[in-house]
Specification:
single chain, 322 residues, alpha+beta, 8-stranded mixed beta sheet, 4-stranded mixed beta sheet, 12 strands, 24% strand
Length: 322
């Protein structure tokens, strides 16, 4: 048994003893780090293997987003198309599934060792394939989509916010993003994070490559830090932006700038929160961004209430401060 497997066993033992994951176990598990093999990856891998071996047992435990993560591991990001649920992942439920499997009558003593070994092999293969980090936007399978594109992928319920049709995510809080008394986008909050979605007109063609350096300069001018990178959402910026809270406390807020060019528009996202800068984009954020439908009216019909010409300024960066 190697070190990662030993730490995984320690987390499972702590849960079995106390009936819930401790903060120390959550930190040790490194949940949300999907570009390497961690205890969290082995726990999820074990749950996915159990789901394959004993679907009935897995269905009993599938009350939260743990099922979404299992689908993610079995089918890559395509697995997210199976459900819109999972604003909360419910790690305790995933661990409970593993423990329930191990407690079944007749389970051999080496069942956990087998599960962890198979899970490590499976996750290592996924990491080495690059499947969880290669771009997945507007490739025929993932959007974001334009309302004129036909057919749109079936099976996704969306909430109509005018120029944006945003996928429903059970347990998430959605509200309009307003500036100057008009709606300019949508904010989706889930699990201590939020994703800000805003569409801009781009009649001259793709603009995200030009917008990113301007955003980078604006973040640096505010005293933040920023690096350019790539993820499943393509070219992006990963930043830490200075913010001041109501009580005067200041911090550098982890913020991921996302962007995707479509026919005559740019969909921009700001994903912020404690784990916003993880190497692999949160599957929920990926699902929300790539399954949003943009429905801009023709420019001649635009009443000025929704959708703007592309113009990135320092003011745009400050929306991440709210």
């Amino acid at each position: 048994m190697n070190d990662v497997q030993a730490r995984t066993r320690a987390i499972l033992d702590q849960y079995e003893r106390d009936g819930a994951l401790s903060a120390q176990s959550v930190d040790l598990a490194m949940f949300g780090v999907w570009d390497q093999v961690t205890p969290g990856a082995l726990i999820l891998g074990a749950a996915a293997l159990i789901d394959t071996e004993d679907p009935t047992l897995a269905q009993e435990a599938d009350r939260t987003g743990g099922g979404v993560l299992a689908a993610f591991m079995r089918g890559g990001l395509e697995g997210l198309a199976l459900t819109d649920q999972g604003a909360e992942f419910g790690w305790d439920d995933v661990v409970a599934l593993v423990q329930a499997y191990l407690r079944r009558p007749g389970t051999p003593p080496d069942a956990l060792d087998r599960l962890l070994t198979e899970a490590e092999s499976l996750w290592t293969e996924i990491v080495q394939s690059g499947e969880v980090t290669r771009p997945r936007v507007r490739n025929g399978e993932f959007g974001p989509w334009d309302a004129t594109e036909d057919p749109l992928p079936p099976g996704t319920e969306r909430i109509d916010y005018g120029v944006l049709k945003v996928p429903q995510l059970v347990g998430a809080e959605m509200r309009p993003l307003r500036e100057g008394g008009r709606q300019v986008g949508v904010i989706v909050g889930f699990a201590g994070h939020d994703l800000w979605l805003q569409v801009f007109r781009a009649p001259q063609g793709p603009v995200w490559d030009d917008v990113r350096p301007r955003l980078e300069g604006a973040v640096l001018a505010r005293g933040g830090t920023v690096t350019a990178d790539q993820s499943t959402l393509g070219a992006e910026l990963r930043a830490r932006i200075p913010v001041t809270h109501d009580d005067g406390h200041q911090e550098l807020l982890p913020t991921r700038f996302l962007g995707c060019d479509g026919p005559g528009w740019l969909l921009r996202g700001l994903f912020r929160g404690p784990d916003a800068l993880a190497e692999v984009v949160d599957p929920r954020a990926h699902h929300l961004f790539t399954q949003t439908v943009v429905a801009l009216p023709p420019a001649a019909q635009d009443d000025g209430e929704e959708g703007t010409a592309v113009e990135v300024t320092v003011a745009e960066v400050t929306v991440a401060e709210g």
